[in-house]
Structure formats: structure tokens, C-alpha cells
Amino acid sequence: MISRIYGKLKDRKANCVILDDGKGICYEIFMPSIILEQISKDKQVGAAVEIIIYYYLQTDGNISRPILIGFLNDVEKDFFEQFITVSGIGPRAAIKALNQPISLIAKAIDESDIVFLTNLPGIGQQRAKQIIAKLQGKIGKFGLIQDEDVRFSETERDISNEALMVLLQLQYKKIEAEDMIKKAISHNRDIKTTESLLNEIYKQKRP
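Request: output the structure for the sequence above.
Response:
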């Protein structure tokens, strides 16, 4: 069974990478979008990379197709394996759903944040409840991953800092304000101004 592949990044596509092992074989490796974004940020086409592999057979009737799913480290793969233990979430559904930093997803599960979880692609309210019931209290270590700013652009960081100053003036504690900002940006990727960020935070706090 394939556990990891080392080679050169030959191509990046919408949901996978093509890795050339240098021995005449190129592998198509599917990845959650949050992992793909990290590779796009850190690696250019042609760069050497080692990818941790989750291997499974996708069965369609009498036809079985091997699928390779890739991660940059064992902790990401471990979270993925925990995530697919939830009833109704298979490997392909998990690839689609994991489009936010793992630390934020783990935190949402631990805090029973159904709103956050239902914003993950393919996760409805009932599935979010199942995720919480299955994984809450079991995935604390993943909340320690230092990946919360992976998807935040320079503009998002700038407006986040401005919003933080406003919330501090409104007597919110810093840790609470930072958490509200991160959730708001994660829920709405179209935020472009400090005012729209604060409006999103307000909407999330309404009952």
C-alpha cells in the first residue's frame, strides 16, 4: 500500500495535484482545498514535495478504482481519518468539506458550532450534529495546529486588525474579539472592508 510519495510537482488542478516520481510514473493525488492552497502558497510547479497518502478503493458496481488522497503531514491525515468515521461522510465527501483550516474545524466541533460546520461544503445541519456527536471531545489536539491564517489574505489581515481595535473599544476581551473575527471571515469570504466584517460579526451574534 502507498503511504507517501516523494517527487516533483508537475501540475496543480482544481482538486488535485500531479506528482512526478522521477521514475516514469505520475500520480494523480486528490486533496482538500485547504491543503491545495498551502501547496500553492509554498511550492511552485517543478518543486520537490513529499505527500502523505491516504489510499482507498472507490467501488462503483463491479469496478474498483484506486484513489490517492494527499496531505502535507501525518496530523492532517489523522484528522481526515477521524472525520470520515462520521456516518455518511466518505473520503470524497471529506475532501470537499475540508475547505477551512483544520484547527478552526476542530474548534467548531469542540464548541458545538453548528453554524460554522454547516458552512462547510456538503455539510447540512443534521450532518453537523452527527459530526459533533461523534467527534466532540476526541480531537482537541487538532485545535493546536497553527494554521488559522492559511487562508487570510493581506487585505483580510488589515481589516481584521482594524476590526479588532473597534471591538476592544467596545469592551470585548481580545481573545473573544479575535475568535469572532476569525469565524466571520471563515463564514464569508467576500468581506472586503472593516465595516462589512463588523456587520458579519453582528449577524453571527444575533440569536
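The chain has a mean pLDDT of 86.
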